[in-house]
DNA sequence: ATGGTCGCCATGCGA
């Protein structure tokens, strides 16, 4: 059973690429971030024709997340219940599996812009609220994953040039501590459960030919709970869609349970 | 040194 996350940076522009990717990669669940669409404009019919049920939390212009699932999902929660926020960054749902229900928390974490900025403080506050939410959800659903664009590179090996990014946004110590606080709940970075190529990244800036130079960061993650860990048989980053015409700046990450 | 690219109800802003 495969789960994927992909920041597609506008579902309107990227829909053909999402459909093409799903045809080649018929995952069971696909979590999307940065829809940049209101819910009314989410192309649920085209996605249904492709074999997926869609639930979304959209907003105009910015943010927006969706869960696509081959099986119908239930107990959908939008946003973080303890953190009043007009920005639509989280959608949570339960999907059936051979091992019982699995809780899927799809997150588009704040970027933070610059260390020390108002947006940076918002990012750290937001992570604290996410942690609170995940802790509460784990009580009901021990089989749980948190996947999405975390906008944090966990370690130096997740950055093409660690010295250049030292204590910069996406790499600062407080951001890494906020991510570590999620791991401390009993979550695991599924990517690092397996041997991986060196210099594996999931995001490359559109500027400066960053993809061609592999000047990227690994900021998109699939975190799995203790209960799911024994079933995890793989996690890969699929760089292929980043080579497309008009690509998203992020690559999908696929995690497999077996 | 500065800005370099995308996508957004459109024009500066967020990433």
Features:
6-stranded mixed β-sheet; single chain; alpha+beta; DNA-binding; 14 strands; Deoxyribonuclease I, Chain A; 258 residues; 27% strand
What does this structure look like?
The structure is a single chain. Strands 3-4-2-1-14-13 form a 6-stranded mixed sheet. The model has no long low-confidence stretch (mean pLDDT 97). It has helices at 11-24, 44-49, 118-140, 162-165, 173-183, and strands spanning 2-7, 29-33, 53-57, 65-69, 74-78, 90-95, 102-108, 144-149, 187-189, 203-204, 216-217, 220-225, 232-237, 253-257. It has one domain (2-257): Endonuclease/exonuclease/phosphatase (Deoxyribonuclease I, Chain A, 4-Layer Sandwich). β1, α1 and β2 form a beta-alpha-beta unit. The protein has 5 helices and 14 strands. α3 (118-140) runs parallel beside α5. The chain is an alpha+beta fold and 258 residues long. The protein binds one DNA strand of 15 nucleotides through residues 9-10, 12-13, 34, 36, 60-62, 111, 113, 119, 151, 205-208, 246, 249.
